[in-house]
Design a protein that fits this description.
The chain has 13 helices and 18 strands. By secondary structure, it is an alpha/beta fold. The protein folds into two domains: about 1-330, Metallo-dependent phosphatases (Purple Acid Phosphatase, chain A, domain 2, 4-Layer Sandwich); about 340-395. The strands form three sheets. Strands 1, 2, 3, 4, 5, 6, 15, 16, 17 and 18 form a ten-stranded mixed β-sheet that branches. Strands 8-9-11-12-14-13 form a six-stranded mixed β-sheet. Strands 7-10 form a two-stranded antiparallel sheet. β8 (about 150) and β9 form a beta hairpin. α7 (about 185-195) runs parallel beside α8 and α11 (about 335-360) packs across α13. The protein starts with a strand and ends with a helix.
Length: about 400
């Protein structure tokens, strides 16, 4: 990995912006440029800011680069269903969809942990808003097969395919449109099936643990198996902070969390003041793709300012973002299990318990029961370690 002047990679960036280059080789034939960002949540204080000055304005600083690429991808974290009242949470604005397209976005992931929030009708409305704005929604469809099917976005002579899904553990029983719930066996079968039809295969999965530097061992294994099976680029999102980047010997790359591109970290029933700076910092991931896969991969740092404009992170802030990303990416090459376990207790267990306590106090027993029903052995171990650490701290 090297840190270079971003202007050597793209023209539509400010002077002084630096970039972390994590893979590079000579291109073979024509190239397509993909720009990828993480979570986009157009509700809460972001919606209020967009109402004040327009969503176009919130993205105006980074839009020139997004528009310069052949493809620009983002995860639409909250369904675009509109204003549902003052108590509604995570309800994005359909009116923002055209602004996303004008800012350069062409591919929009709609399969994520908030896809079920407003039922099939809410997901359908979100897909409609994105489609009418001229974007390609991925990760959902009229049935399970369509939701997990290959989406093609060929550019010139480069055949590019996408597979997208989300690990939510939420049953989808209602009739109507659905998102693709992650199933590893299905994913690996789809990669094997679709790989011969494309030059570049991009796999986008909404999965992970929030606020941690590194992916859990299970998620790292999924990324590695996806690359070994034939995925050229694996994009993960859900952790709300940047996580490690891994490049394997064949040149395939996995970004284990793209971070929050534009999102109100305070929105929710319970405020989680965890990794606050990191929740407002992310990157535009730049990939040049040719007939052989990835010939360039780089991260250009961004941050969300207090008025919810997405800004380029230059100077010391940009150096800090890239320095952290480089460090945690190198740590992925070693045994990081102990540091991961400690972070999981400190940064993941406590927020989960806060949310459960909020709903229990208010008698939302159905929600509490659903969450408790998802508890697995690793959760029990995590909570046991957390309780032990609390007890030890009081002695």
């Amino acid at each position: 990995m090297t840190i270079d002047d971003a202007s050597s990679l793209a023209t539509d960036v400010p002077e002084g912006l630096r970039a972390l280059v994590f893979t590079r080789r000579a291109p073979v034939g024509p190239c397509a440029r993909l720009l990828a960002v993480g979570d986009i949540g157009l509700s809460g204080r972001v919606a209020a800011a967009g109402a004040r000055c327009s969503f176009d304005e919130l993205l105006s600083e980074v839009a020139p680069l997004l528009r310069s690429g052949d493809l620009a991808f983002g995860n639409i974290e909250f369904p675009l269903v509109g204003d549902l009242g003052h108590d509604a949470l995570f309800a994005g604005e359909p009116s923002a969809a055209p602004a996303l397209r004008r800012s350069g976005f062409t591919v929009a992931q709609v399969a994520n942990s908030h896809s079920p929030d407003f039922g099939p009708a809410g997901l359908a409305r979100s897909i409609q808003a994105l489609s009418e704005a001229g974007m390609i929604p991925i990760g959902a469809g009229p049935d399970r097969e369509a939701a997990g099917g290959l989406v093609r976005t060929d550019v010139r002579d480069v055949r590019i395919g996408w597979l997208a899904g989300a690990r939510t553990l939420i049953p989808q029983s209602a009739p109507g449109i659905r998102f693709w719930e992650f199933d590893e066996a299905e994913l690996m079968a789809a990669i094997a099936r679709e790989r011969p039809a494309v030059d570049v295969l991009v796999v986008s999965i909404h999965m992970g643990l929030a606020y941690l530097d590194h992916p859990g061992p299970m998620f790292k294994a999924v990324g590695e198996r996806a690359m070994a099976a034939g995925a050229d680029v694996v994009l993960m999102h859900h952790a709300h902070v940047l996580q490690s980047v891994q490049v394997v010997p064949g040149g395939q790359a996995c970004c284990y969390s793209l971070g929050n591109f534009l999102l109100d970290w305070r929105e929710g029933n319970v405020e989680i003041p965890m990794m606050v700076d990191e929740q407002t910092e992310a990157a535009v991931f730049l990939f040049d793709l040719d007939a052989k896969g990835v010939c360039l991969g780089a991260a250009l740092p961004t941050y969300i300012d207090p008025d919810f404009h997405v800004r380029w992170a230059t100077g010391s802030r940009g150096d800090r973002i890239l320095g952290r990303l480089e460090r945690i990416s190198r740590e992925l090459e070693s045994d990081y299990s102990e540091a991961f376990a400690v972070q999981r207790i400190q940064r993941n267990a406590i927020p989960v318990l806060k949310v459960l306590a909020f709903h229990a106090v208010r008698g939302h027993w159905r929600f509490v029961a659903e969450q408790v029903g998802r508890i697995r052995l690793d959760h029990v171990r995590m909570l046991g370690r957390w309780a032990a650490s609390r007890f030890a701290g009081r002695r």
